[in-house]
Amino acid sequence: MAVAGSQSPDLTGETKSARTTASRETGALGRSGSPGRNWDSFERDEKPERERDIELQQILADMAVLVDAQGEILDSLENQVQNAVNHVVTGTEALREAKSYRKKSRKCMMIAIIILLVIAIIVVLSILKPWAKSK
Where exactly are the transmembrane stretches of this chain (predicted)? Predict the structure, then answer.
């Protein structure tokens, strides 16, 4: 339907002036109960559409809030995962260092045991003196 002027169509594709023209055409006939569509029934039919549009807008707004909140949660999880990775790397380095210290401590312990054995042998030999001639 072509309408002169700069009227923008609504969701149903009709302009305000087109609805006004339609209501004028059906005016008295529609209200009197003729088969024509009157303005009151048009508003009743349009009301559920408006309510659905409002509900749809509310749902979309709620979805936007949820997406934003989930984005924050994902950012928080990403930070926590990065912190966990850093802790794992630090722990791995600490384990390598502990392994190195364990090898060094074993080596020192073996040297200490050998020195104690040598000292024990010297003490035992000095007490028994097997090389001295007995008379």
Answer: 108-128
110 inside domain: no
* 66 within domain boundaries: yes
Range of the domain at 44: 21-105
Which of 10, 55, 12, 9 minimizes the C-alpha distance to 37?
12
| Domain count within the chain | 1
The pair of structure tokens assigned to 98 is: 């502990």
Note down pLDDT in tens along the chain; length 135 residues: 444 444 444 545 545 555 555 455 444 444 444 455 565 665 566 677 888 889 999 999 999 998 888 888 899 999 999 999 999 999 999 999 999 999 999 999 999 999 999 999 999 988 888 777 665
Identify whether 120 is part of a domain. no
